[in-house]
Amino acid sequence: MPTYQLTINSKKHRVDVDSDTPLLWVIRDEIGYMGTKFGCGMGLCGVNEPLSLILI
């Protein structure tokens, strides 16, 4: 199982999850941020899309 490092709200998290695990499940179930909501389940509504911001 691969290890991933995510930075959420300026805090780094390491998670060991299968590569096909949805990001929503990682954020809610592995990291514990329960404010992330499930939308339509098909990726059409955009509710469950994280916002990525890269500062250079």
SSE diagram, text form:
Layout: E1 3-8, E2 11-16, H1 23-31
Keywords for this entry:
alpha+beta, two-stranded antiparallel ribbon, 16% helix, Ubiquitin-like (UB roll), 56 residues
In the CATH hierarchy, what is the superfamily?
Beta-grasp domain
The fraction of residues assigned to DSSP E strands is: 15-25%
Q: How would a textbook summarize the main sheet?
A: 2 strands, antiparallel
First-to-last CA distance? 31 Å
Number of distinct beta strands: 2
Query: Which shape, going by the Cα principal axes?
Result: globular
Number of helices: 1
Class in CATH? Answer: Alpha Beta
**Mean pLDDT, all residues:** 82
Bin the helical content. Answer: 10-25%
In order across it, which strands form the biggest sheet?
1-2
CATH architecture: Roll
The CATH topology turns out to be: Ubiquitin-like (UB roll)
Order of helices and strands: EEH
- Look at the helices and sheets and give the structural class: alpha+beta
Low-pLDDT windows of residues: none
Number of domains: 1
Kindly describe this structure.
The structure is a single chain. The model has no long low-confidence stretch (mean pLDDT 82). With 56 residues, the protein is α+β, with helices and mostly antiparallel strands. Strand 1 (3-8) and strand 2 form a beta hairpin. The chain has one domain: Beta-grasp domain (Ubiquitin-like (UB roll), Roll). The protein has one helix spanning 23-31, and strands spanning 3-8, 11-16. The protein has a two-stranded antiparallel sheet with strand order 1-2. 16% of the residues lie in helices and 21% in strands.
